[in-house]
Structures are given as C-alpha cells and as structure tokens.
Amino acid sequence: MKKPLLIVVIILAVLLALPVINLLRWTFQTKKPMGIIIVDKTVPTLEREKHKSFNWIITNDRFVKKENGKSFSYKKDYYGFVPTRPLKERKWDRNEYRLADLAVLPEEADALYITDTYGVFFNDWYQGINKSRRTRKLYGGLNNNDNLLIKEMKDRNKLVVLEYNCFDYPTAEYESFRIQERLNIKFSGWTGKYFSSLDTTGPDFPIWMTAMYRQQYKKQWDYSKAGIVILNEKNIIVLEEGTQLDKPLPMIVTDSSYCSRWNLPASVSFDQWFDIIDPYDNTVISDFVIETNSSGNELLNEFGLDNTFPAVIREPVEGKTYYFSGDFASTNIPVWTSRFVGIEKIKGLFYSKDTEATGRFFWLYYKPLIKGIFNDYYETLNI
C-alpha cells in the first residue's frame, strides 16, 4: 500500500474509532441514581424542546432512574402535555400527578425541575391564523398540585428548580402569589425578549405587540433594527439598537465564585424570554444586564425598571431551591449526542459562532449550570 493511501486509511480508522471509544467510555461511566421529577406543560411538538436539553445533560452526566438504572427518556419521563402520534391528527394526552400521589411522590423523589408551565394553546396546537397575544388555553399554568409538590419537596429538603413563567399568565393569580411567597421572591409583572429584528414583516415576529404599542403611544410601530421588547399586562417598552441600546443582546453576568465553582463564563448572551423579579434575600448567582444608553435608562426608569436584574437565584439557607428567570431549557439539541464522553470538545459543530446562537448558550452556560447544581446536590445524598 502506498504511503499516502496508508495515511488516509489510518486517519479514517482513527476518526471511526473515536466515537466508538467515547460511547464505550460513557456506557461504563459510574451511574448516578437519582429520582428526578420533570414537569413540562409546554409541549406543542414531538421535539419536546422545553425539557429535551435538560434530559441531554443528565443523560450525558450519567444520572439514571433509581428504580431500574436506566437513563431518563425525554419522550416519556416527564409530567405535562403529551402529544400523541400521528401528530397530524392533533390528538394529545396529559400525564399528571394527582392529589393522592403527593403523599408518595415527594418521599420517593430526590429532585424536582419545573422547566415550563406556560402550556399549549389552541392556536399553537391547531396552527391557525390567529395572531392575537392569547388564544384559548388547552392546558397549562402552575396549579394547586404543583404548589403542593413544591412545598412537600422543600419541606423534605430536596432539590427544587423552577424556570421562567411560573408566575405569569396562564397561572392563576392566587397560585402565582403562593409560589412567589414560597420562594420568597416578587414577580414584577414584566417579561421581555430579544429580537434580531424588530421589523414586523419577519416570519417569527409577534405582530400583536404592535397593537399594544399603538394603543399605548398613539403612533405607529416604526422599528426595524435588533432590540429588546419588555412588557406587562398593560404596557410595552421597546429598546432598539443604536437608539436606546449600545448592544442589543441581553447578557448574563455571573458571580466570580460560581464561575470558578461550576465552570461558568463571566458573561454570555441570551436571546430567549425572561422575567423580572425582586430576589429579596435569595442569593443571586447570575444577573441579566441590558446594555442601555442614557436614553434607554431614562425609558426604563419611567416604568420603575433597571437594566440589571436577577437571572439565577438560590435559596440562601439550605441552598437547594433555585429559580431561573429565563427560558433556559429551550434548546433543540440532538439527543443521540448525549451518549458520548467528551462531546463538548467538538461543541462548536453544534452551533454557529454567532453570539445570538441558542446552542452557544446551552454549551457555555446552561450545561455547566445544571451539572454544577445537580452534582453538588448528588454529593449530599446517601445513595
């Protein structure tokens, strides 16, 4: 065999062998049995994007179910809205814990992660042409059983993680008040999101925002650059790049002690929905920072808002209850890649170098955050 051909054969053999080796390394890695309750009420497609990335992380890190030692299935091992096949028939089911289950479930489980309670609405599911802000709810909202489960888990000093939109619509006002009181935080009523273009002709732009804007300011929507929209039930604020913003993307800035502890970046961009809370006495791990100029600061101040607010908080005494003020878990990552050790070494293949890439946020921030929280907690369990 000629030398150049031999070199090519060797290179190809190495490239083919590496995935097999890393799969075997993952297979024989020490398993971490843990009872994890996953709740996702926002599952309008079979992709289950609102909790798939969380399942990816715990699978990759070898967390398994206590009862059988198997990895958690993102398709089956969650409570919430369940689309059924064939999807074109638009049939669905629900997997719920009932009041009677709450006598056993918190005792058997070790951790609870509520990734999304917003739910599924008529127009999301049936894909109609209604472009209004809200349509009829099919399923969703944090309810009494959720509140009781959180209470029972906290009372047993178990790990509890909640994510963006546990307080806002469609959660009932009373249930929202209860969970805020339980977490010792105050929801301001304001939520927001970055848009790569505020041009209303874009395919994914929520056109209902323009109606809110016209009603409030009595003028037409005339934005087209990148920017951030922040709104509550009655008011809307538009921050546009170059006018109110020096940089359009919100940044998540993390306390240096957690950067070194969990290998988190000092700052990372974030392009999904977020809410604004008052953390009271909770420990702030990361903050959202919106890079406003003087005009943007003035506009925020008119509504009693600041350009810095909590992104991740932690209960300060036991340190086992967390709230993420953003839609962190929403990443459609290929599940098959979770079964390879060292896959993060080629993470650049799974997202563009663009700072707006959601995949970039997953690899740089969300993955080490979840690994840090769950591994710290696992070390406290007597399993």
Short description:
The protein is an alpha/beta fold and 383 residues long. 30% of the residues lie in helices and 22% in strands. It is built from ten helices and 18 strands.
Overview features:
4-stranded antiparallel beta sheet; 2 domains; 22% strand; globular; alpha/beta; 10 helices; 10-stranded mixed beta sheet; 30% helix; 383 residues
Sequence-ordered SSE layout with sheet pairings:
Layout: H1 3-27, E1 32-33, E2 36-40, H2 49-60, E3 63-64, E4 79-83, E5 92-95, H3 105-108, E6 111-116, E7 120-121, H4 122-126, E8 137-139, H5 144-155, E9 159-163, H6 173-183, E10 186-195, H7 208-217, E11 227-231, E12 236-240, E13 251-254, H8 256-262, E14 267-269, E15 274-278, E16 283-289, H9 294-302, E17 308-314, E18 321-324, H10 358-378
Parallel strand pairs: 1-3, 2-4, 2-6, 6-9, 9-18
Antiparallel strand pairs: 4-5, 7-8, 10-11, 10-15, 11-12, 13-14, 13-16, 16-17, 17-18
Helix pairs in contact: 2-10
- Judged by helices, strands and strand pairing, the structural class is alpha/beta
* Low-pLDDT regions: none
Indicate the percent of residues in helices.
25-40%
Cα-atom radius of gyration: 22 Å
* Overall tally of structural domains: 2
Largest β sheet strand count, sense and barrel closure: 10 strands, mixed
The end-to-end span amounts to: 56 Å
Overall geometry comes to globular
Number of strands: 18
What is the chain-wise order of helices and strands? HEEHEEEHEEHEHEHEHEEEHEEEHEEH
Polypeptide structure, described:
- This protein has two domains: 15-184 and 315-383, no CATH class; 188-279 and 289-308, no CATH class.
- The model has no long low-confidence stretch (mean pLDDT 89).
- The chain is built from ten helices and 18 strands.
- With 383 residues, it is an alpha/beta fold.
- Strand 17 and strand 18 (321-324) form a beta hairpin.
